[in-house]
């Protein structure tokens, strides 16, 4: 059973550390990839807070395809190199965008989004997809959210065979 109230009164970094332990406990004994990714999206969405969209895209047939997420319906396919997510894949780097309206080629899946954090999923030098987190607040994401989102992907990579999602 999940109770968000356990996070009441915690400092931000303490919440994020607890999020990592909860994520590990959710995925370490579950073998189903979709189940683990869906729970990861829900947990990250709930704990990071002040976000309007949180989810995953995976590379299939040379493009990003929507995976499990929390939020409004989203773009189902994104070309590699397009938008913030496609750029993160192409450049193999984290994209922390203060104001998406200033990002050339931004793809507005949810018109309410104003800032975005995208973490590429890379294992053994191969990119498998991205974790995408959006907020209605300009400048919502800091180095702290970036650090812990990266730690979430590192943790998931220990338990998920990303290769199975690219087929």
UniProtKB/TrEMBL annotation:
Gene3D superfamilies named among the record's database cross-references: 3.30.450.40
A Pfam match: GAF_2
Residue intervals of the GAF domain: 29-144
PROSITE patterns registered for this protein in UniProt: UPF0067 (PS01320)
Domain of life: Bacteria
Family under the similarity heading: Belongs to the free Met sulfoxide reductase family.
Protein name in UniProt: GAF domain-containing protein
Species assigned in the record: Clostridium neuense
């Amino acid at each position: 059973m999940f109770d968000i109230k356990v996070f009441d009164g915690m400092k931000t970094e303490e919440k994020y550390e607890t999020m990592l332990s909860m994520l590990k406990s959710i995925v370490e004994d579950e073998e189903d990839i979709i189940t683990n990714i869906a729970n990861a999206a829900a947990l990250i969405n709930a704990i990071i807070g002040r976000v309007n969209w949180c989810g995953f895209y995976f590379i299939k047939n040379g493009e990003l395809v929507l995976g499990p997420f929390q939020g409004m319906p989203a773009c189902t396919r994104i070309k590699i190199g397009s938008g913030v997510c496609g750029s993160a894949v192409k450049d193999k780097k984290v994209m922390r965008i203060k104001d998406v309206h200033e990002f050339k080629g931004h793809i507005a899946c949810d018109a309410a989004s104003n800032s975005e954090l995208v973490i590429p999923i890379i294992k053994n030098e191969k990119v498998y997809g991205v974790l995408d987190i959006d907020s209605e607040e300009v400048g919502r994401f800091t180095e702290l959210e970036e650090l812990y989102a990266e730690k979430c992907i590192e943790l998931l990579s220990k338990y998920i065979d990303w290769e199975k999602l690219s087929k």
